[in-house]
Queue: 2 jobs
Job 1
Amino acid sequence: MTRHQIIEVNFKAFFSAGEKPLEFQGLLHETLRQRASIRATISVDTVRLEVCNHAKSTPKVQLRGDWCDANFRVYKFDCVSSKLFLPYLFNISEVSLFYDQILTLGHSYRPLSDFFMRNLLYSFSRDETFACYASGNYKTNEGSVTNLTRQYFFIFQSMFPEPSLEGRQAGVVIDLITANAYLPLLEFNNPLLNTGARKLQELSVAETNLPPIEQLVGDLNDARLKVLEHFS
Amino acid sequence: MHSAPFFSIITVTYNDAWSLMKTARSVFEQNFENFEYIIVDGGSQDGSAALIDFWKRQGLADKGVSERDGGVYDAMNKGMRMASGRYVCFLNSSDVFADKNVLDRVHKVLSTDDYDGVLGWGELNSQIWASWIESEAFKMASLGFCHQSLYLRRELLLQHPFDDCSYKTDSDTLQLGRVYASGAKVPIMAEVLAKRGGEPGISADLERTKISILDTLAKEYPSLSEQDAEDVIDFRRRCEGSEKIAALLAHPDKRLVQHLATMVLDTLFQRASKNLPKDSASQLMRISLDALGAATDVEQARNIARLLDCQKLRSQKLVAAAEVRRDLDRAVTKFEDEEKRRIEKLHADGTVSSNTKRSDFVVSLTTFPARIKTVHFAIRSLFEQTLPPKEIHLWLGRDEIPGPNWLPTRLRELQPMGLRIHFCDRTRHQYDKFLHNAELNADAPFVIVDDDVIYPAYALERLLDGHRMYPEAVIGNRCHWIATTEDGTVAPYMNWQREARLDHPSFRLMPTGAGGVLYPTGFFIDPIVTDIDRILSHAPYADDVWLKVCAMARQIPTFATELSHKSDWYHRYTPTMKAGTLMATNVERGLNDKQIELCLDWLNHVSPDWKTNLQMDDCPE
């Protein structure tokens, strides 16, 4: 059997269940066999899927892309409730999942984009640590990046059947969720989502109301003590 | 027309060939390929030129120069002028990339036209330089960063060359400060991109460093008095005189104060600040944050947020690294129990005995830091033999393992059994096994082994049995059958048959160190075997290949013992087997084949009959 390490698919094949390439199963097998990571990278004209070695010290979920607003860069996504909103604030152009983050193998009636976004949502739901690399405007296909967010939204919506997410076009609701990180525009029945939205809004306020010096001194002291522990 | 490469990677070196080996290999292993590699040698006399020649022939080193220069910064400026890539990185001799995807990741970030470069993190001896500030403040007392993790546009470097005065040691931080002062956009990449070599660089010369930094402070901050500058250095180095620094933070020169405040905050996260009481640290933080205007200036507040994020990330990475070390310790403990039981069983069933008479040959091996915790397992297995050796010689490089205090107790405990531990000034990697003690082979056979294998109890006896039968031959417990193509040339290494044997010595068999190899008396006395220039230019990363062609040059065949059989040869390796292995580079990236090709070219000159000799035997079943 050929061992697939890298495959490239066109956007249609990435977002359409009917065109899911057969080689993907091989890639998945390799990921699990090697206990490696599986990565999807959206480039200008194609999506590259590959098996990647995973350094032990790096987070099991890694994302690359751009923040919708540079201010989000300093936000702390340190709990499930705020992590769940991350894909609305960060335009994902690359997802890398360690093999133990693969909880659903991707049903035949679901596209590859679903595989990555569904597992990502599960990882966030388990409060897994992740790394977000936003280092500039990558050369990507913007439409596909947007489609990936929509894919996430559809899974999110099915998991959290909220009235405030219904009845409008997906693009409009996604914009509202992003804006909700600044201002309380949406109400959620689910307390987890409400907590996450509130946390993000608090961060937004904190960003404009800079923390007092004493709070910074406290934060710096905490961080310093953690670093100095390693010098004993 | 050739387009300019994306990166120029420049290595500056001087009399450091064996460290350069590590650096060049790390460049060779990069998955991203759109780069040129430039080696600037200061006229070394230690074989560096031969190694550079090797890499030129592999097409890796695109440009190189070997001539006297005016020191490291002069050489770096020279390399910079030779560069044609869009972005330049200096990875000097003994430094390595953090992993094989570094250039790929940096390329992804720099693919946007917005950036003039990126500044990543660096690592040295498991400690991390976590750069966090993107500012001119680097001019202040050498705010630490890892220059091996800095990628800058070539034009920008040419505008801001290194200050190459002979006494300078901080020209890299000064240059980075100037680059930021020019308004260049060089964001931080908060991940380790390079690992610095263990060798102390020019910054280890504290007196010279002080002169250099005082010079920088005098030129860049004219309002700072000489005494103030001394106080700044004392604080930066030892975190001493915090009250003097607190007073300096009230200086009327706003730019000076901002840079000082940045330096203070950075220093509070360094080892030097370990003994500074929390109250004093808090007070310094308060004054520094005030001086920066962190409560009112959004940009400064963001810098502090980044400092916090970077230090938290650094802390996480240190925790993860400590966990890896603990995992290894646990694996070593478990392995030790298994080994203890195995050895007890060998004694219980009479396979080995402490009263067994020792043979007259010596065993030699080398190891390196990643395997120092486990090398005692391999050595112990070589003492627990049906025919134990007279002595086992372990060779270590002081540049990697400074002295006996760095050795684990379990290793030192083996000395009464006949372990001789030698320290040489600089490691020559796998070649340390036989470059230093060839004279021991003058009157007796000589066995070389690997440092990560548990040798079966009869491994040495089998070698000696073979030697008694064929005293002129090389004897191997694990040999490969050298495959040839239809026209008689040697086939790629991947196609060679593993663990092969014949009932007689053959030129077609290549012994591998993993099984243990016995070399007949006098083999290493031939000066060609230890000719460093020849080794570095032909097989710097493949001692097995080098020794095989040396044997072929002298018409010495190899005999494979009965252990060299797929069903008999069992691989029991120590827990650090995968650490620092050359397997990926040599086999998967084809470096073995390149070295074999060069060695066979040489063999054509010294022993033109080798092809005929190779055809004498058929492939074993």
Note: Chain B touches chain A through 47 residues (CB under 8 Å).
Job 2
Amino acid sequence: MAATKGESSALAQLAQAALALPILALPVKAGAAEVGEIGFTLLGYKERGLMKITEPVLWGRAQFLESWEVQASAAIDIISGASPRLVTNASGKPVQTLTGASVEDRRNTSDVKLTKHFGDFSLAGSMAYSDEQDYNSKAFGIEGRLDVNQRNTTLIAGFGSSKDHVGSTDDPTLDKPRDTKEYLVGVTQVLSPTALVSSTIAWARGEGYYNDPYKLTFTFFPTGGPLLVPDVRPDHRNTVAWLTRFRNHVPSLKGTLQADYRYYSDDWGIRAHTLEVIDERWSIRPALRYYTQGAADFYSPTVTRPPATVHSSDQRLSAFGGLSPSLRVILRVDDRLTVEGTLGYVQNAANFHLGGSGNEAFETLRAGYGLIGVTYAF
Amino acid sequence: MLHRLTFFAMAAENEVQLHSDDEVFAQRAANAAIAEVKRIEAKYSRYLEDSVVSRINAQAGGAPVKADDETLALLAFADACHRQSDRLFDATSGVLRRAWNFREPRVPSQAELDAILPLVGWDKVEISNAHVRLARPGMQLDFGGFGKEYAVDRAARVMADLGVSSAMVNLAGDLAILGSQPGEAPWRVGIKHPRRDDKLLATLPVTSGAIATSGDYERFIEVDGVRHCHVLDPRTGRAARGLQSVTVQAIACIVAGSATTIAMLKGREAGLAWLDEMGVAYLVVTEDGTVIDRF
């Protein structure tokens, strides 16, 4: 917008006084509105002696027609290595056993989200698709956000539904459905000009096939013959996840500290807590995450006699804890191009479980991951 | 290739960015711009005993002090602001800081303000024959409302004189943009949200011009739920009310900056009407959090 008033206008008077100084008159010009960002990240994850995952992700975000926004991403997970399939006490105590077969799989995922802003209210619809050899998932969601209280408070409500199909490379006839519906409510509250807290609760109700068709438990008894049983889990899973995030900017430190706490509970008997602290003071951002979970009611590394109707020896359902430190480095090359990298380490172990050691049969998992990403704004 | 230098001056973190294929030239141009900012800080800081402003203040109620052309032109600019703002923009109102200490949450009493208000008044600044005199002992000149903005404009000018054609000078959020980035690309200027540190109010694409922001979040105290910010009304001695922040784009940072201060002082209704009448591009957040985008 240019000044069109006469010489007597306030702007003309101020400009005239300013240009008596030894300075330049810089023509007022705006560029085209920012339309979006496009980015590529490459994630690598490797468990010591087990799985390796490589995941290239392409994503983008764009605004159009002033009040619309679209976000989309596509990724391929390339999974290789070995996964423990059998838990057996053949050697005296139950241990995970690697079978000879190694896993080679690819998972293709993509999602798209469309948001329309109506002043202080916005409504978003999303769809996601994931496909691999023995599993596929289709999901959609809607989410509304409302800014109230002079934009100091944001209320969020959402609903999502996913339809999954579980198969098995060992059993081409296996094709079992699993349906999940998720409900979410949340609030973000500004506490002060430098601090804000947000809290979100999500409930999910799932029904269908939850068994891991590759997992087996092989148990020897002091008397009688051994038993080999497949993984049999309940045919429903209801979960509650409550995430609270606190961010505080400390001007004297020129930085932001973020702390997250997540509580998770399900009707399989798992209770889990995650605490993460991120220090965003510098362009090198250290973070530390702690996780602890209790075992599912039907977890056991050995089979009971007679076998229970539901049973799993999958150690991800056992009691354990984990620590994961990471370092993220962000480099702003110019005002359009940002490069970032993250290096992290994960150690999950029985003795990291909060309040007493976890399940003895849990075999310590050590994994490293790295991420590099490039973002270009256009 | 983009060169980016950050530096500390005027109690803040600042930056110069410029495009040049010649690294040595870029460094030289940025250094010249930074040196110019530091020259202006030294010349007009009220914290430095040796500065022009301190010498004029030391002689308040006494003998006239000789001023050079640059100082006289800045005072003439302050005078234009005073006239164009119905006397709200007043380069002598800084003395009110004797009553307002923004480090502790205490609102000065009427008696305290009444004791200081007689020392405020642009009409008590006598400028004649290249000399400046403050009429009453205890009066203070303060270039806080336009000194930093002038430094932005001077830094841009110094770089332009050296042949730089694509640069941004940013002194703590007040900035000048000298030419677009390569490929006619705009510089993307992030405007701070006055209440939320975690997000920007807007990202403005700008290829040329100056942008300044004034807000009630820079220095303030909160007492009984009321925010008192550092923008003080010379008539009452009390903090401006009605607007959380004002961002203006103009041909010079000194013009944009003074316009933001005047709008803050005028408050919501009068401030917005004045900005509309000015015909400048602006972005305002009112006291109730409403965002008015006229960019």
Note: Confidence is low (pLDDT under 50) at residues 1-7 of chain A.
